[in-house]
Amino acid sequence: MDTVAAMLADEEFVRRKIAASGALDSTQEVIWEGEAFTVTTRRQMPTDQVPSSFRSLVGQSLDVRLVEAWEAPHPDRSRVGTLSLDIAGAPVRVIGRMSLQPGPDGGTVQSFSGDITASVPFFGKPIEKAAAGAVDQVLAVERSIGLDFLAGR
């Protein structure tokens, strides 16, 4: 679990996952406090993945801010953390919990849970559904990048 946590805080890994997201521009910051760390990224994202019926609400690009705050490891080296994703100018917010736990094969299991909310009258549920699909795609890409990153170590 320590290896996976170190990867999540590694600036090269963060750069790779930002690049894979298709960001037009980005910044990143990793801050350590003892064994706890926070990764904050800002990405300017194209709106090509936003359903066409909602693009007029968001413009030509999205300013996405993601904060992943990981607590120090527990005695068994497992970790928990929180995530917060905000999209400037769009009525969508993601708040969640994440964890790193021991896997059955001696590996590490990373899990996420959370809520996606869209504060648009009449259109909230379709926007939330579209956002959930986008989050699932991002997690799949990040998993793939993570496996490649760890294999190269």
Automatic annotation (TrEMBL):
<protein>
    <submittedName>
        <fullName>DUF2505 domain-containing protein</fullName>
    </submittedName>
</protein>
<dbReference type="InterPro" id="IPR019639">
    <property type="entry name" value="DUF2505"/>
</dbReference>
<dbReference type="Pfam" id="PF10698">
    <property type="entry name" value="DUF2505"/>
</dbReference>
